[in-house]
Amino acid sequence: MMDLPLENPARQRLASDLLGWGEPRPRIDPQVADELRGHLDAGLAAIGDDLGRVATAQRGGHVLVTKTKLDRLVCDGLQLDAAPFQHTHASVRGILGHAMVAHDLDAGRIEPAAKVVEVVWQAEASRRPGDPASLSAWMNEQPPDHAHQLRAELTDLLEGFREVWPPLPPERVRIRTEEAIGISLADGHVRLFGRPDLLIDSRHRDDRARTLVVDLKTGRPRSEHDRHELRFYALLVTLSRGRPPFRWATYYVTEGRHEAEDYRPEVLEATARRVIDGARQLVRLGLRDPGDEQDLQLRGGSWCFMCQREPDCEVAAAARMEHALDQLG
Q1: Which backbone phi and psi does 12 adopt, to 5 degrees?
Q2: What is the pTM of this model?
Q3: pLDDT per residue over 186-202, tens digit each?
Q4: Fewest 10 Å CB contacts: which of 22, 161, 165, 310?
């Protein structure tokens, strides 16, 4: 239990509702991680020899499953032909906002917000300036007034985060920012990978779950999508550490609010099934004849704008028409 003074009601709410200060942590079944890994290995083994054939043909010799690839489960077309990522003001604001908060937490929150923004800006702008598709190139191409505006927005964002987010004493908790977590399954044929924004661990060790997973968002909320991403991170943490988090949450930095979900074994089991479905889709698509469109499982929806097939896709056109009719009432 934390007993630090909290200077304002916003910090008090966050400490109680998200960080759970003063709440007992749930006791956990010591077998939960092994059981989840067993379910995953069994489900992946059921794919058969095709899994090994596709894995050996991939870079790294495994089928890679990430939160992005799980997001694309909705449509084979999106999985195969997602539109290339393009930097925009909003996306760069999000990328730099994440880096800025991570730097601020790692550095102990002692520098002025504007200084943190400047340090992160210079680091990112010099990372890969020669790559025309890189974040560095986008930043360096911005007119001075646009760059100044973005820096000002980031400073405001960090100051708002500091106002709401309580200090976390290092002697009581350990904070990890963007820790890479990789899990090998099915004799190395499948690899799960992700980087949770924040992992907050109590330094007290016992038979209870004592890790909080936090995903930071600076854009518009997408509750279902955000929840699925978090559950994948929670599964990664459980498999890598042998015990689940007690809670996982999305923190919307701009709004200063969060959406949280407490540990339940059935949620992680459902996420494991989703991982198996993702691997099965990737194997099926890895074996198909690239010229054969008949066996594709296409589905239109709000995700179509992220797919390169969208302008010529009949399924996407039908989805747009259905949405338009729904809007007319």
Answers
A1: -65, -45
A2: 0.92
A3: 999 999 999 999 999 99
A4: 22
